[in-house]
Request: fold
Amino acid sequence: MAILRLDMTIIALLTLLQILLTGWQIEGPTRIAGGLLLLSVWPGYCVLAALESRFRRRLSAPEHVALAIPTSLGLHALLGLALNALGGRAWSWLYSAGTGGCVILLALATAVRGRRSDAGPTLSRALAIAGIGLVALTAGTVIDHRTAPRSASHLSLYLLDEAGQMSAYPTRVTPGEQVRVHVGITYDGPIPRALRLIRSRATTPVGAGGPTRSALDAGRTEAVTQITLQPHSEWEQPATLRLEQAGLHRITWRLCPAEGGRCERSVHLWIQAEGSAEEPARARARGPARAGGRSASVTGGALDVDELQGAE
Amino acid sequence: MTRSPRTGAVVGLLVTLCASTAFGLYLAAQEVTDPFLYYDAAFVARTLHQPRMAFPATGPFASLRFAPGRIMLMLQLAAMTGIPAERLQFVPWGAMLISQTLYVLALRLLKSPALAVLVTLYLTLNLSHAAALYSTFAYAMAVPLYTGLLIISARLFQGDRQIAQPLSLLLFCAAHVTHYTMTAWIVVFMVGANLTIALQRRRTPGAGRCAQTTAPYLTLTFIVLYLAFNRAIYASFLPMIKMETLEGAVLRFSSYLSLAPTQPALYAYRRPAPVSLISALTLVVIMAPALAGLLRDGWQMIARHCPIRPVELRRPLIWGITAAGFADGLAYTVRGVISTKSYAMFFPLIALFYAQRLRKATLTYGLAALLLGLTLVKIVVFYQASSVIGPERLKTNLAEVQVSARWLHDHGPETGYTIAADLNLYGKYLLAATTPIPVLQGYTQALFAQTIGAPAAPPAAPDLLAIDLASAEPVTGFVWRQYPPFRHYQAAIQANRSLSLIYDDGLIWLGAPTKE
Reply:
């Protein structure tokens, strides 16, 4: 007398549930667990169950499960690639429904073919199937919790070239020549923040060795800007520099809390000032370039600051 | 009431599944991943809403055409589960699949559920190979195919061919489109196993000789398919064989064992000593009994005066696995890395198999328990040394890299540009869909030295340098070369006169090399 094989019945029901969840685009742990099983266990399990009588020796429950995994992966990979070559979309809902439908048909066909003598092995297989389903559901719950969208709060400080791009930063100028860059900040956080943007400069005259680390850390402060940033805000201003003294200059911008304390962000440019004096004279005749009245200039190494106003 | 062996085997299956999945979920929470997996996930993210999967001929995704099957499986996984493509790499899929197939293979070879549980947990909890195995990397899909073929081949060699033969062919073809290394493993395994059967039959004339049969036509089919259709071997494998890659392999292996390389590279990454020590110790515990057993068994098979067990059904599997393991080690060495993956994964089975032959249960169970114990100690050691897992942040996560990726997208050149970055960071830029896709310039000794301001022959400077300040992991560069994390060189980078720092968000620095 035929009996309903428990393992195949469980598979048919779980696959049906998975098709509905995928079709309705319902996301969550059950769909994750069902998807994992439909992709990596059920098809192979059903195929092997259908072909079981052709094996000389019966498959044991663990063997059946273990062989179901590579068989499922193989079937999905090869069928998917074949469909893709024919112009089909093997990752669409239709594909899930199609393969799920085949699994259900195969499971039901195999389920009613079982005999009473199969009851023992079938019970251990049902135990294995149920256990795997439970583990997959637990894993699905954790995975679902971890895949919730996350956004990171951030504060970034950056420099752009004269054209507002990141490709042509000034590296070599003649003394006195004007160079212009853009300084920008992006901020995303829960509360408004009051910050100071500090520009400093460390110079190594021509012929001297490289600046020492302490000299670089200290530099000479040339401009301080008070800025208050709202959540989800951006701030960007042009800055015009004129390096009169020949040598290697490191111009540093640091972003520090307005109330004092350790600076949080820092960017810098290395600019070599060298060449004839005629070029700077010509450059000076052109006058400092200003953009929106919010530029800063540095002349002769002395502090010469157009105090920038914060962008509240 | 005594439990039947059948129930014991099923309980063992579920125990390994539970423990492996739980550990996989922990690794996912730690965001452990393989740097190359970002390429796959990024391509899946770009293809998921396309009508067809088509691989570009050039660019970072071009090499994925060698293994389209695994991309297809990832696409299907994303569609069926609804998990976002960028999170696929943190799904402990491999932990679930590998634990099941490996457990059954161990059960078949060792015939003891308890031993099978111990040896399977040894591997699935093993942090040395966790990044490649636990999630959706190529190995996570390909190892079950290989292991499945080993399980079915046991039936094949016993003459149960009607289903075993077509099933083996299916698994081979699936492995072929999923991971080219695994196809080579299968071919070498089949050759090794067939030769062993042939040798056994030659040595045992008479009654027991018909117990196993070879599968020459199937093996030949595999070889022909492999040589005719495996494009990766001609396009990617053979051109990589050169002195530089061999040198890289030796350096990396020296780092693995914490040994001083013969020609110390100035900036080669050395793993923390406890991590190397426990890894080396585990390798010795596996390889010593396995090699001793193989040598003894090999001698018995060859030397005519030695008695041989007439019908040893498991011997072809053992020798097939051995052949595949050594071939894999050699193949990766010429590609720049001495791989211990196959030794770590399958040689414990060989070690335990030969330990069982000594008929001392204490010894066999002791060895299995020792292996699992070493794996557990490894978890503690790795955690304390912040290697793979750790109490502190080990690298910047994708949400945090999105900020600089958006900046690159907004301000980067409209045409392509080159970027020097660690493979992990570059992968995150790929995943963050930065456009245009920057071209990766992998770190070399010279480029690494140039980045930290040390004197070096100037390499071709990239347009941009990206530095993950939060990363405690080694910088992975060209042909698997590894360098110390940049976080140790922050002051040196800031003082580097040939590098302007143009972006700082506290976690990522972007630098523009000063071009003459």
Remarks:
- DSSP finds 20 helices and seven strands in chain B.
